[in-house]
């Protein structure tokens, strides 16, 4: 049987050639040619069936109002944290990509979820990386009484597609998409062309038979999901599973979701028996110590408030240019805050090294953390301990003014729930009545100086 021919398509100009070149003949860009398989027989047949007059299949536009309402049916993944990130559960016929570093726990998460779903739905777990015995060992270890599910240890795309069509499961899991191999393409498994073709073929089948498909994707050395943007466009949701290799908790986030909000956060903890959900994640990010240089903020991940401790260490530098390092916060943000403190409060921080860390290995990207960072730095510089039960929230302007932050009400409620009694916030929050109801001392400040005086109880700009 002759091999189906493949062609190469330039990803920057779209030119097509039959032969591979390192440089596109048409637009001159380098390394932009990607192998593509010729359309398969069945898709050609389907296209012929879509001819006008070929029956009720012919597609016409229709008015939005005439379109019936069809509420999204969702299946629970068996884990509240995973459902939350998915926007309420798995949508039948949808394609979800779960990415993350090797060894972070993607296979564990999906096997646990598959086993939970299998208690009342049909599930197919395709393991393209591990042998059937390896998966079974893990499955036995994860739960005391795991539900039975169908397992296929296979890397050949055609065999996986056949099994999907034969079983028509409600949910199918492919671990991983990079390990699958389409025999029609000559490129190696994991290459852009392979990943794209395999995902597209799986999606066609999944949509046709309404199977919810979860794909595992690896993150490359550069930190992007392999088969990069190609897959992200194709799938309905992209979840990333991240965490510190040395810490036990893992964070699941949605970076794209056609059926829910992005930036939702799910928190898990890796234990001896697999992943457990963490219902009260703020506890993970509170160090519990009241030392100098510790300030507490409330970060918001999607709709989820998290109370987090920041810790700063300011010490006299022994270098020509002082060292600044930050874990969990962009170092440029730290530079900016240090410059504002130096300029507006007269603190000679350019003569000091400054280290900043977020407890629990969380990444806090929001500007709402600015005031907390400033307070931690000043507290360490002046060797002060912040009064117990204080949270600080506010974005710092370059002029030293304090700017409002979003979702303040939600953040304050979370702080109160965890026993905090004082909050320093930007002026004009309008949350006085809420604070009174919650029994929270609301301290409003217009500038960084004012906020630190209220937060620390002394004027840190005063000389001793
Ligand atoms: P795994 O799910 O294989 O990672 P991935 O599929 O993302 O590559 O998880 C592997 C790590 O998780 C491994 O280093 C061991 C750890 N682990 C536990 O600590 N407890 C467990 O019960 C399991 C199954 C794994
Ligand atoms: Mg794995």
General description of the model:
This protein has helices at 41-49, 80-86, 106-117, 132-142, 157-167, 192-209, 228-234, 331-345, 370-381, 408-417, 432-438, 448-456; strands at residues 6-10, 16-17, 33-37, 95-100, 123-127, 150-152, 171-175, 212-218, 237-243, 249-257, 265-271, 274-277, 294-301, 304-316, 324-327, 352-358, 390-392, 395-396, 402-403, 422-426, 441-445. It is an alpha/beta fold and 464 residues long. The chain folds into three domains: 6-36; 80-279, P-loop containing nucleotide triphosphate hydrolases (Rossmann fold, 3-Layer(aba) Sandwich); 283-456, Ribosomal Protein S5, domain 2, CATH 3.30.230.10. A hairpin with a 2-residue loop joins strand 13 (294-301) and strand 14 (304-316). Helix 3 (106-117) packs across helix 4 (132-142), helix 8 crosses helix 9 and helix 9 (370-381) packs across helix 12. The chain starts with 5 loop residues before the first strand and ends in an 8-residue tail after the last helix. Residues 106-107, 129, 175 line the site of magnesium ion.
Q: Tell how many strands the DSSP assignment holds.
A: 21
Fraction of residues in β-strands: 15-25%
**CATH-assigned homologous superfamily of the largest domain:** P-loop containing nucleotide triphosphate hydrolases
Output the strand order for the largest sheet. Answer: 6-5-7-8-4-9-10-11-12
Bound molecules: thymidine-5'-diphosphate, magnesium ion
Number of separate helices? 12
The CATH architecture assignment of the largest domain turns out to be: 3-Layer(aba) Sandwich
Q: What characterizes the major β-sheet? A: 9 strands, mixed
What is the mean pLDDT? 86
Note the gap between the termini: 88 Å
Bin the helical content. Answer: 25-40%
From the alpha-carbon coordinates, what is the Rg to the nearest angstrom? Answer: 27 Å
Q: How many structurally independent domains?
A: 3
List low-confidence stretches. Answer: 43-56
